[in-house]
Amino acid sequence: MRSKTVPIMIALAAIAVASPSWAGDLKDLTGRLGQDRGGGAAQALGGAAGNLGLPALGGDVAGNVAGVLGYCIRNNFLGGDVAAQARSRLLSGLGLEEEKAAEEDEDYKAGLSGLLKGTGGGRSLDLESVSGEIRERACDYVLENAGSLL
């Protein structure tokens, strides 16, 4: 488990250095990732993320990632404060409020419906078209990667 969580922690630490005002929040968020699902997203995913064909995530799909987090929370694939805080921070970073994003941002709306878009117009995954276990793993993957988009 340690080798899988180290890259995530390094990415979050780099973001924290670049944005000192979020450093404490990101440290708390990183620490709680492992508490929400009894071992965290990295452990829940194992090596399966690549095998599931999940799309690569980058800054250009941050609005979609925020929407997918909303989808995952609403459908009980993610719980606790961590996912909600990550979604709020992504929206804030885009200069959007949740109600406004739901009305105006097409990527956010697509994410709320369960469509996970890949960076650069790459591969997408419709979470409604896959089994519950794959949805849960995809939601963990999105939460795990949301920190790098902040």
Number of domains: 1
Lateral strand order in the biggest sheet: 1-2
Proportion in helices: 55-70%
The Cα radius of gyration reads 14 Å
Residue-averaged pLDDT, rounded?
A: 73
Derived structural class: mainly alpha
What letter string, H or E per element, gives the SSE order? HHHHHHHHEEH
Give the terminus-to-terminus CA distance.
24 Å
How many separate helices? Answer: 9
User: Strand percentage, roughly?
Assistant: under 5%
Largest sheet: 2 strands, antiparallel
> Can you count the beta strands?
2
Morphology call = globular
Q: Give the low-pLDDT segments.
A: 1-51
Protein architecture, described:
There is one protein chain. Helices cover 65% and strands 4% of the residues. It is mainly alpha-helical. It has one domain (2-149). Strand 1 and strand 2 form a beta hairpin.
Write the layout of secondary structure elements.
Blueprint (H helix, E strand, L loop, with lengths): L1 H17 L4 H14 L3 H6 L2 H5 L9 H13 L5 H14 L4 H7 L1 H7 L2 E3 L6 E3 L5 H15 L4
Antiparallel strand pairs: 1-2
